């Protein structure tokens, strides 16, 4: 009997070069979890042939360029992939959507991005968003209100991501009654003395700061605060996840509060981690471990129900993914797509707030979104 060819799934990993990852092996965990879930799906006959991962790792924004990300997508299509997982970065996803929407039908393959912007959603563009600009803005505003914060200074990275966050946070601040004392710009890349920016924030009269952008802007804020003698509560959105990038970042983010997708109370996630640990002797108990498990299960569901097993069939099958309990987020978070519903999370608790210890060594659960103390209507 002639052997069947594998199902090709593309990985569009546009976060390059990666920082030095010492404690959390984000890329290694990603590949190992994907391979484990796809292999189990084949062993359990959920898929009738194995999955082959085809990987492209372009250097997209913020350090590289969008063109290389689009080129990588085209290469994955030419390789015969019927589904693409990625991109990861919002600024690359916006132009990728424009390219895919204008490409000939035979050059379109559905992609499931991890990005936060809704501007990548389209007929072929899906998101299992590792965050989400509107949702993050509302969640962090709610957390600030719960913490008794009444005013903040926005420290804004000069980027599309930062501008999106700011627009949505202004809406959320109005609802949760957070007084924005000013917006102060920082470079998008890490490095440099931020003392002058922090002096402006201090002089605005704000009682806290909120960093909005891709995430590298948090570097140097703690040091600048200590230098000018103004140490106030520090908040951010899923920029918080940069804490996992290495010991240097853990030092940079001592005492910060931000948004994550790992919640130890979620038993779907804990059961997966138990199973992974029993099989591999490690426990990726952080946001990317449970997120990758959710992404892999969505991919399996799309592939197993595709009619036919081609780009259009997988695209239509993604829209039929319903009611999968999520490993990410607070208990009760679900996974669901649908017609004109191309974002995969159900439930406001897919984001949770966590706080980093004062020595930077670990972080703990801090809260979830709650309604404002007073509603306008």
Automatic annotation (TrEMBL):
Record domain Leucine-binding protein: where: 36-346
Question: Where in this chain does the entry annotate a coiled-coil region?
Answer: none
Q: Which UniProt keywords apply?
A: Amino-acid transport, Signal, Transport
Signal peptide range:
none
Task: Output the GO biological process annotations, alphabetical, semicolon-separated.
Answer: amino acid transport
In terms of domain of life, where is this protein from? Bacteria
Q: Which InterPro entries match?
A: BCAA_transport, Leu-bd, Peripla_BP_I
State if rRNA processing is listed as a keyword. Answer: no
Say which family it is in. Answer: Belongs to the leucine-binding protein family.
Please state what the protein is called.
Leucine-binding protein domain-containing protein
Protein species of origin: Tardibacter chloracetimidivorans
Its lineage opens with: Bacteria, Pseudomonadati, Pseudomonadota, Alphaproteobacteria, Sphingomonadales
């Amino acid at each position: 009997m002639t052997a069947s060819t594998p199902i090709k799934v593309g990985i569009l990993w546009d976060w390059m070069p990666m920082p030095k990852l010492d404690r959390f092996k984000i890329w290694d965990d990603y590949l190992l979890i994907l391979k484990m879930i796809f292999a189990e799906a084949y062993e359990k006959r959920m898929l009738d042939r194995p999955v082959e991962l085809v990987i492209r790792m372009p250097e997209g924004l913020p350090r590289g360029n969008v063109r290389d990300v689009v080129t990588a997508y085209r290469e994955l299509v030419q390789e015969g992939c019927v589904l693409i997982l990625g991109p990861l970065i919002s600024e690359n996803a916006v132009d990728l959507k424009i390219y895919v929407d204008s490409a000939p039908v035979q050059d379109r393959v559905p992609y499931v991005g991890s990005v936060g912007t809704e501007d990548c959603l389209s007929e072929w563009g899906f998101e299992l968003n590792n965050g989400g600009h509107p949702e993050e803005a509302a969640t962090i505003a709610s957390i600030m209100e719960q913490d008794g914060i009444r005013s903040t200074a926005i420290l804004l990275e000069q980027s599309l991501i930062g501008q999106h966050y700011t627009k949505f946070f202004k809406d959320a601040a109005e609802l949760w009654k957070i007084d924005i004392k000013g917006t102060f710009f920082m470079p998008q890349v890490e490095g440099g003395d931020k003392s002058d920016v922090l002096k402006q924030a201090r002089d605005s009269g704000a009682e806290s700061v909120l960093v909005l952008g891709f995430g590298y802007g948090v570097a140097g804020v703690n040091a600048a605060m200590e230098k000018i003698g103004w140490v106030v509560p520090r908040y951010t959105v899923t920029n918080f996840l940069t804490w996992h990038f290495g010991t240097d970042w853990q030092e940079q983010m001592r005492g910060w509060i931000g948004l994550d997708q790992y919640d130890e109370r979620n038993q779907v996630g804990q059961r997966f981690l138990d199973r992974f640990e029993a099989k591999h002797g490690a426990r990726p108990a952080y946001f990317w471990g449970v997120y990758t498990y959710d992404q892999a299960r969505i991919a399996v569901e799309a592939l197993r129900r595709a009619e036919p097993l081609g780009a259009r069939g997988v695209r239509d099958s993604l829209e039929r993914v319903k009611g999968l309990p999520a490993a990410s987020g607070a208990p009760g978070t679900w996974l669901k797509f649908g017609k004109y519903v191309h974002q995969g999370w159900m439930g406001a608790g897919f984001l949770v707030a966590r706080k980093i210890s004062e020595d930077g060594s670990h972080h703990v659960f801090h809260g979830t979104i709650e309604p404002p103390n007073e509603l306008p209507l």
